[in-house]
Amino acid sequence: MAESIPTVKQRRRRYREEIIEDILRIAREMMRKEGVAALSFNAIARELGMRPPSLYHYFDSKNAIYDELFRRGFLEFGRRMNERPHQDGPLRKNLQSVIETYMGFAQENPDLYQLMFQRPVPEFVPSEASMAESLRLLAAAQTQFADTLRSQELAINIPFAEALDLVIAFQHGLTELHLANNPELPVGEGRFGKLIPLAVQMILDAWQKS
Amino acid sequence: MAESIPTVKQRRRRYREEIIEDILRIAREMMRKEGVAALSFNAIARELGMRPPSLYHYFDSKNAIYDELFRRGFLEFGRRMNERPHQDGPLRKNLQSVIETYMGFAQENPDLYQLMFQRPVPEFVPSEASMAESLRLLAAAQTQFADTLRSQELAINIPFAEALDLVIAFQHGLTELHLANNPELPVGEGRFGKLIPLAVQMILDAWQKS
DNA sequence: GTCTATAACGCGATAGAC
DNA sequence: GTCTATCGCGTTATAGAC
Questions:
Q1: CATH number of A1-60, picked from 1.20.58, 1.10.10, 3.30.565, 1.25.40
Q2: Mean of the per-residue pLDDT values for chain A?
């Protein structure tokens, strides 16, 4: 089993990756505690027992850390959207699971959510690659749901794209206000978190109106 | 007319107030150009031809500047809400004017809007006084609209508070997405700005559903 | 090459003495 | 109103250790 003993190169690689994970974990902790914009490159180094310049061997800049978290945020978001329940179920449950998944992601990952959907750090602009990936994932989630809608015999009395945008705006507003008012409460509870079923009902009524 | 000649004290006072207005004007320019969080105390001083420490004669800190803009933002917001059209008109027009006024304020004062309704500067916490004033103005605007609703013979089939919160979430979502996607376009235009009439229709349908 | 360190630069907010 | 000074920030250059 000589193959199972890692080479020096592999050890180094693993060690490096562990440090990178540590950096990202510490960064997320700080963002959740002090706010996304209050992330300090120097403070991460201190937390790791390093001098700030040494951190540059793992990330080229503070914005590179933001960028990696931005990228991973959309990966996780896409994963959750793909795995959400009721994707082939009745429209009401399907729609409700879309909104609950969106809000659930925001509630459990407020740091990533802010980075992805708000713009709390003006000087941080996602890299081309991360931006492209995020748009791809968002479009995929949207297309998947749109296809489901089309496959049903819905008599929607407004243009399709606008019907979807209304859902997006509604879910975004509910989520932002839930985070602002009851950040600690899970989806389904709190002043705005509990409104999801009502919102779903409103949307369905509007769509299916004769 | 000796009274019309300002005393030295009055002159100084007016001079001081002019400088304060200049500071706030420059601050708003910078926030709009570089982002709310990127406001620089030093840069304001430079713009005024002052040394940074001199600015402390007008504002105790950078956050004091934020706080004054926060306070004025809610004053202006309250003023616009009080002066909006169709306050005694038919429900549809009344509701539409609420949403348009909200979005219009955000579109014309994105710097103030971010300071007031988003939280782009984690270390800035509004002072007690400003916060109390803002809550008072928000509650007033809300109560006024709620009273109008009550005075109409509406058969709303969900609790009153929740019906209002749905409106708030919807208007907030539409506004955020409008600012994110078409910040330069006025209310009524753009991907999300043009959805207001549809949203109003959705809300009315939901409320008046038998 | 990979990782760490020290030193230093230019910037920011802010405090105190004049 | 100023100048001086302190502190923290992100960042770079550079040099030594593995």
A1: 1.10.10
A2: 93
pLDDT score recorded for residue A149: 83
Q: How far is B73 from chain A, CA to nearest CA, in Å?
A: 19
Superfamily the domain B63-207 falls into: Tetracycline Repressor, domain 2 (1.10.357.10)
Cross-chain Cβ contact B195/A35 below 8 Å: no
pLDDT number for residue A121: 87
Q: Does A34 touch chain B (CB under 8 A)?
A: yes
Q: What angle do CA A30, A104, A63 make, to 5 degrees?
A: 35
Domain limits of chain A? 1-60, 63-207
DSSP string, B101-149: HHHHHHHH-HHHHHHHHS---TT----HHHHHHHHHHHHHHHHHHHHHH
A210 — pLDDT class (breaks 50, 70, 90): low
The CA–C1' separation of A64 and C2, in angstroms, is: 20
Mean pLDDT of chain B: 93
- Selected residue with higher pLDDT from B134 and A151: B134
Phi, psi at B58, each rounded to 5°: -110, -35
One DSSP character per residue, chain B reads -GGGSPPHHHHHHHHHHHHHHHHHHHHHHHHHHH-GGG--HHHHHHHHT--GGGGGGT-SSHHHHHHHHHHHHHHHHHHHHHH-S-TTS-HHHHHHHHHHHHHHHHHH-HHHHHHHHS---TT----HHHHHHHHHHHHHHHHHHHHHHHHS----SS-HHHHHHHHHHHHHHHHHHHHHH-TTSPTT-STTGGGHHHHHHHHHHHHH--
Decide if B1-60 and B63-207 have a common fold.
no
Q: How far apart are CA A142 and CA A148, in angstroms?
A: 10
- Summarize the confidence of residues A68-82 as an average pLDDT: 97
The nucleotides of chain C lying under 7 Å from a protein CB are 2-8, 11-17
Residue A158 has its nearest CB partner, among B37, B173, B198, at: B198
pLDDT digits (tens, 9 = 90+) for A92-110: 999 999 999 999 999 999 9
